[in-house]
Amino acid sequence: MKELLNDERVKKALEYIRQDDERTLKEQLEMCQIPAPSHMEKEKAEYVLKKFQEAGLENVYMDEVWNVFGTIPGTGNGPVLMLAAHTDTVFPAGTDLTVRREGNVYSCPGINDDTRAVAELLSIARAMKAAELSPQGDLIFCANVCEEGLGDLKGVKHIFAGDCGLDGFVSIDNPVTGGIVYTATGSHRYEVVFTGCGGHSFADFGLPNPIHAMGRAIAAIADFQAPVLPKTTFNVGVIQGGTSVNTISASASMLVDIRSDSHEELERLRAEMKQAVEQAVREENARWTSKEEVKAEIIMRGDRPAGTQPSGCPIVKAAWEAALLLGIEPELRDESSTDANIPISLGIPALTVGRGGREGKVHTVQEWFEPVEAWLGPQKDLLLVLGLCGLEGVTEPVLEKRNRKQ
Ligand SMILES: [Zn+2]
Fold first, then answer.
1. Of 21, 124, 245, 359, which is the most buried if we count CB atoms within 10 A?
2. What is the CATH number of the domain that holds 243?
């Protein structure tokens, strides 16, 4: 990796990224003002598509789920790498996306996660074209959809369905510039819907109540036990239901998130949750003499597979070294439910790495960004992708070509 820093084209590209810093920020600010809740990213995707074309990438296109791609073809028969960032944000349609500025700090929902990274993709692409820098294997840039929440990694699942032809995958999606996520925590997300016939709180008193049933279920879930290692967690994150204070509601629902590094723990908690829901329904129906009954339905809304790679594997080492070479402190991080879950669960080397600049309050409407040496993020990722794909006459690729149909 060190050899890369001595190459004139690499030097030129790194300098280009630094000079491009202001434009990268401008595009970041433009993009974060385009609403892009999961499943509604098309307008932002079209913006990226145009920018990929302007950057001079080849084979630029948008697929049927609105993932956008552009390629720098390799100079040889090297490994094929995808460098990705996600276009969706956690903020619902209608969120105020006005950018506010105080000194050098910019605030806007979604300004970092992951809009900053999409802007960095554009800068890396432009820098490589300007420096006439082509790796040994194809480098595919991708702005993918549906990373967040109930987006359920739809964009990346679409990419890895079937024979994707990729030998490695790197997503830029971490708040710490030197951050490296190399494990894949599995998560299950469920919507549990309780229904009943509903009625007047006074006139129809005695009917089983879906909200009461859900309360019983939540009380049971709140008492679940989970091991510290392998890290396992549960959360009732959203509850909904009810019509008015004097109505026995006809329905109530909740969203439940269960996560674990262990597939067995996930399955255990899934079974316990099912039991808790069924028990709650039985208790609520038994509480009243009415013939009417409350029912519950459990619907799976998210399924992110678990998987592991050794912390000393080549792709992790390459990311570590790329950061060190630029004076960035590398850090193994454990936010491990990311777009990289899908390739990791398939045994394809993959990472999620950090964005440049300082940031905070991610996933809240106070999300802020401060461009402090923000170019270091994309510079590091340029070195990383060149290390992984190889640069003819300079470095051999870190990634191996996987066996696949030609
Ligand atoms: Zn993200």
1. 124
2. 3.30.70.360
